[in-house]
Design goal:
The complex is a heterotrimer of chains A (about 300), B (about 300) and C (about 375).
Chain A (H helix, E strand, L loop, with lengths): L8 H34 L1 E4 L4 E4 L3 H8 L1 H32 L4 H10 L1 H4 L2 H12 L4 H6 L16 H26 L3 H9 L5 H12 L1 H16 L3 H6 L11 H10 L5 H28 L3
Antiparallel strand pairs in A: 1-2
Chain B lengths: L3 H17 L5 H7 L2 H29 L17 H15 L4 H32 L5 H10 L5 H15 L5 H5 L6 H13 L2 H9 L4 H12 L1 H17 L2 H6 L8 H10 L7 H33 L4
Helix pairs in contact in B: 1-9, 1-15, 3-15, 4-15, 5-9, 5-12, 9-12, 10-11, 12-15, 14-15
Chain C lengths: L2 E10 L2 E11 L4 E5 L6 H9 L6 E6 L2 E2 L10 E4 L11 H11 L4 H14 L15 H13 L5 E5 L7 H18 L2 E6 L2 H7 L2 E6 L2 E6 L1 H6 L4 H6 L6 E11 L2 E6 L2 E7 L9 E5 L4 E3 L5 E10 L3 E8 L2 E8 L15 E6 L5 E4 L8 E7 L1
Parallel strand pairs in C: 3-8, 3-9, 6-7, 7-8
Antiparallel strand pairs in C: 1-2, 1-4, 4-5, 9-10, 11-12, 11-14, 12-13, 13-21, 14-20, 15-19, 16-17, 16-19, 17-18
Helix pairs in contact in C: 2-3, 2-4
Classes of the chains: A mainly alpha (about 300), B mainly alpha (about 300), C alpha+beta (about 375).
The complex binds adenosine-5'-diphosphate (ADP) and magnesium ion.
Chain lengths: ~300, ~300, ~375
């Protein structure tokens, strides 16, 4: 817009800089600086508590690579992400289709389904510690089926699936809202025309309209789901702290422990966080290329 | 090419639609639907709702029991006279446990400061990006959106080290400041300001308002729904934030409620006092629940935008 | 006095929204800027208001150069197409805001708000919010908000475009009354030629950012000095027929369209090779057996008391807007493709340069088929 400025443009741009200044001061101090600093730290043996700081090059990265624990954590995270994201996306879409009605009852019941979205992950985790505990609801439900009661979170086989279940339970409503928004943005004349064309059964509506029209919502939900899942921390920390026997060990626990429990390993922690960053980027870019193929 | 910014733009697009609330596909179902089918659907909705309510119902139930063991047969009525007495009793126990009032106060303090500042900072910047012309506007806006690409762990460790270095571990400013800058709030505000016809601001200029007066007298009052939406989910996000306080608040004096809840889990050695834990959960839930009840509409609008949750 | 715009240029990237436009609005004059959508009307208005800083050019309001001066300091008021009322303020506060900003004492504000409300008949609306108003009421409030400031000039950007047809007619009268009671200069932008013709003391016709002609409505219609004006004004607009030109003597030319010939004397110079068009208004066509021209009838449309007869001459087409009488009525029975003789009212044929659009100063000598 060369040459075209509002009268009083200096007043305007000065106001603008004043208005964005707080944001950029905060972003600079608490986002950009830490991000850069994090890379710097990852190249050092960095122990701020004992004032022992020296350059180690890429050794931190090498030790993360060499760590079987980190590898295990990444594999766990990938398994977790695959299961949780696919299930919750499916469930969210299903719930949205169910609740996308103008019944009074749908408004009321919907409000209950959103409850996990406002509950803190710690509180939810605690409720689910009970759910999976020996005296908990899960055993109560399974008892008639003749399944012996046990504390599911103490089992190396079932602890991780239990956490998956909790997260599917609590994040599905969240993504359901996005699908609801998507469904409501389909103009009703389109569905009326479809009805006239004989698209009446719920399945054909889903197959030929809702699903293809909400492809982008689906990909959005999937990407957000992946980013959230790979960074899983709160629930694992509260419910199992990575155990039993590393069955629920995930990268964020690895990173957290190295920063928090072993101050001498902060550099390693930073290096691991960068590797996690790379993994997230790779997945995001892969998704992006996938999206590029699609016309929407 | 789909970048996070486009994703968010898309989300906002949906969000705007929700804001206006003109009915979509849901409307046409209703006339044509046969009664049995309608009843079937309603039953399904109720079942789903029950599944979602049960854990919370149980939370309330446990908070109205005194015994740490499950009764047999279980007493499922949380509204009896004894239940109420137990509830009060449990409340006293939790409230006088450790520094519970302090933790509650800390949570309220941190969240309310984060909400007010974050929403204000977001609104100011969002307005500038939407309406004011200045050199570097587009680049700076992409810089803001770019922060969405940086995953939290990368920032986390260095922020922690930084806080240690400058001695802000165990401080309110250390708890609050890193939570304020929110690209999502900026983006939401900007999108909302863009929907306000620019002629209204032209008229205000002719009426003698300066740019900042247009912002706070004309545009900001018109953006109330956007303020509400971003305030609500900023509040919930901050109230429930666990990981940052976990690193930052290392002495009990600076704990927030999620840390306290986690502490309750292991507070009594091996014996788990469900009644107290659930009581604490309830206390932590009350403010978000009240806000949710009042502003459910805005909350849902906000969520369809923010996407990820702790 | 009034508003003076000289050599105004506004460049948006590669598009030149306003291209060297100059004009003057006299004190108390109602000047209409007319042109198709996207031709730069709004941009000119916004330059005068100070909402857009021109790339170059000077704007004078009441004898004072206002370039770079903040909009509110320019002593103008603006009325918008979408009313641009402040949605969160009552009608009263909408009107009063400007005076509040000027720190005018409250009793004075109240008095002036009441005053304009009375004049524009919106007194009962003062406590309402904009969304409770109908389109016509909202625009009245827009006018009141502008009027209360008693500016040197009013700038109005298609103020009636958002109203339905019936209301628009009513509000047109309102605008006339508005000019009378305010007595100020008005710059009024529209793409509606009826509005322009009925309201304007003078009309500035704009196309692609260029000022084409500025004249009184009657003169603009009767003597368009540009092909664009001829083709824009009138419904249907002027018929334009491409012609072959031959020089026959000093300043004398032979023009042919189809088998028809016109001999003209052109006072200003013309290159015979240049592509040239002849124009005449549909209402100036006379059907008569001794008319000098011939064209083949295409079809006839009945409008009521009038009719549109569509003709072809070779590749060209034109329309005749005719009153129904014993002669023209016969056209209904005439077969499509039949040759019909016609004439054009004396001195109502215009010769244009097809490329530049410029109208030649031409005198008709004779015509025949
Ligand atoms: N802010 C702007 N940025 C870029 N181009 C613009 C801007 N405003 C107007 N234009 C362009 O300038 C031309 C004139 O616009 P405008 O004055 O609004 O036309 P009108 O009011 O006659 O319809 C159009 O081609 C339009 O696209
Ligand atoms: Mg315009």
């Amino acid at each position: 817009m060369a040459g075209v400025r509002d009268a009083g443009s200096r007043l305007e741009s000065r106001t603008a800089y004043l208005l964005i200044a707080p944001l950029f001061i905060l972003l600079g101090s608490f986002v950009f600086f830490p991000a850069a600093f994090s890379f710097y730290v990852s190249l050092f043996h960095y122990d701020p508590f004992n004032h022992s700081i020296y350059y180690v090059g890429f050794n931190n990265y090498l030790s993360v690579f060499d760590s079987p624990l980190f590898r295990l954590a990444v594999i766990n995270a990938l398994i977790y992400t695959t299961v949780v994201v696919s299930t919750q996306t499916f469930l969210a879409f299903g719930l949205a289709l169910l609740f996308n009605r103008r019944f009074l009852i749908s408004k009321v019941t919907r409000a209950f389904v959103f409850l996990p979205a406002i509950t803190s992950s710690v509180a939810l985790s605690i409720i689910f510690i009970w759910f999976f505990s020996k005296q908990g609801l899960l055993n109560y439900i399974l008892a008639p089926l003749g399944i012996a009661s046990q504390n599911w979170l103490f089992s190396t086989t079932y602890a991780f699936p239990s956490i998956m279940m909790l997260n599917i339970f609590s994040t599905s409503p969240y993504f359901m809202i996005m699908y609801l928004a998507g469904l409501q943005s389909i103009p009703s004349p389109i569905m009326e025309a479809a009805a006239i064309d004989g698209v009446i059964s719920p399945w054909s509506k889903f197959r030929y309209f809702y699903f293809p029209m909400l492809t982008f919502t689906t990909l959005f939900v999937v990407i957000l789901g992946i980013i959230g899942s790979i960074q899983l921390f709160d629930q694992v920390f509260v419910m199992t702290d990575g155990g039993p026997a590393y069955a629920t060990y995930v990268p964020m626990i690895y990173i957290f422990n190295r920063a928090y429990l072993y101050p001498g390993l902060i550099g390693v922690s930073a290096a691991a966080s960068f590797l996690l960053f790379v993994i997230i980027m790779v997945i995001t870019i892969a998704q992006r290329n996938f999206l590029k193929e699609m016309k929407w | 090419m789909v970048t996070p910014s486009e994703l968010f733009r898309y989300a906002i697009h949906k969000f705007r639609h929700l804001l206006r609330g003109n009915g979509g596909t849901e409307e046409l179902e209703i006339n044509r639907m046969s009664l049995p089918r309608k009843l079937l659907l309603e039953a399904a909705m109720i079942m789903v709702a029950v599944v979602y309510v049960v854990p919370f119902y149980w939370m309330v139930l446990k908070a109205t029991r005194i015994s740490i063991l499950a009764n047999f047969p279980p007493d499922l009525n949380p509204f009896s006279r004894t239940s109420f007495n137990n509830f009060i009793n449990n409340f006293h126990q939790v409230w006088s446990f450790g520094n519970f009032p302090t933790w509650y106060f800390n949570s309220i303090l941190v969240s309310s400061v984060v909400v007010t500042t974050s929403v204000m900072v977001g609104a100011m910047a969002g307005y500038a990006f939407a309406r004011l012309k200045f050199r570097g506007r587009n680049i700076l806006f992409y810089v803001v959106l770019g922060t969405l690409m940086i995953p939290f762990p990368v920032i986390l460790i260095a922020s922690y080290v930084f806080m240690v270095d400058i001695g802000w571990i165990n401080s309110y400013q250390g708890l609050i400041l890193p939570q304020i800058a929110s690209a999502v709030n900026v983006f939401l505000m900007r999108q909302y300001f863009l929907t306000i016809p620019s002629e209204i601001e032209d008229a205000a200029k002719i009426d003698g308002l300066r740019p900042w007066q247009i912002f706070y007298r004309i545009s900001a009052p018109l953006a109330k729904p956007a303020f509400a939406a971003s305030a609500i989910y900023t509040f919930i996000g901050s109230w429930n934030n666990f990981l940052w306080p976990l690193l930052e608040a290392q002495t009990v004096n600076y704990w927030t409620l999620p840390l306290a809840l986690n502490f309750f889990k292991g507070a009594n050695g091996t014996q788990i006092y469900w009644n107290q834990m659930m009581m604490a959960d309830i206390l932590a839930l009350i403010p978000t629940f009240i806000i949710y009840m009042i502003f459910e509409r805005y909350f849902i609008q906000g969520i369809s935008l923010t996407g990820t949750k702790g | 006095m009034g508003v003076c715009v000289s050599n105004l240029v506004v460049q948006y990237g590669t598009t030149r929204a306003v291209d060297n436009v100059s004009f003057e609005v006299r004190d108390g004059e109602f000047l209409v800027i007319l042109g198709p959508s996207g031709c730069g009307k709004t941009t000119i208005l916004r330059c005068i208001a100070g909402l857009v800083e021109p790339t170059s050019g000077e704007i004078t309001i009441d004898g004072r150069v206002v370039n770079g001066i903040y909009p509110s300091e320019r002593n103008i008021a603006m009325v918008f197409q979408n009313y641009a009322l402040y949605p969160h303020m009552t009608v009263h506060d909408n009107i009063a805001l400007n005076m509040k900003m000027k720190k005018i004492p409250k009793p004075e504000i109240e008095k002036r708000v009441k005053d304009v409300a009375l004049k524009l008949q919106i007194s009962e609306l003062l406590q309402k919010k904009p969304r409770q108003l109908s389109g016509g009421q909202a625009q009245r409030v827009g006018l009141a908000r502008a009027m209360v400031r008693d500016p040197a000039a009013f700038l109005m950007d298609e103020p009636l475009s958002n109203l339905d047809a019936k209301l628009r007619n009513e509000m047109r009268d309102e605008m006339k009354r508005f000019q009378k009671i305010t007595g100020r200069s008005i710059v009024y932008v529209t793409h509606d030629q009826i509005e322009a013709m009925t309201l304007g003391d003078r009309i500035l016709v704009l196309n692609h950012g260029k000022a084409i002609q500025i004249d009184e409505p009657r003169k603009l219609f009767d003597e368009p000095n540009h092909l664009f004006v001829a083709g824009f004004l009138g419904n249907p607009p002027m018929n334009i027929m491409p012609c072959d030109v031959r020089l026959t003597g000093a300043g004398r030319y032979d023009m042919k369209f189809g088998s028809n010939r016109v001999k003209v004397e052109i006072k200003d110079s013309m290159t015979p090779s240049a592509s040239t068009s002849m124009g005449f208004r549909p209402t100036d066509v006379i059907i008569s057996d001794d008319g000098p021209f011939r064209a083949s009838l295409d079809y006839v449309e009945l409008l009521g008391t009038e009719m549109n007869a569509h003709f072809r001459i070779g590749e060209g087409r034109f329309i005749a807007r005719l009153l129904r009488d014993s002669i023209t009525e016969k056209l209904f029975q005439t077969k499509s493709g039949t040759d019909v003789s016609f004439g054009v009212r004396a001195n109502r044929i215009f010769i244009f340069d097809s490329l530049s659009g410029h109208r030649y100063n031409a005198l008709l000598d004779s015509a025949d088929a």
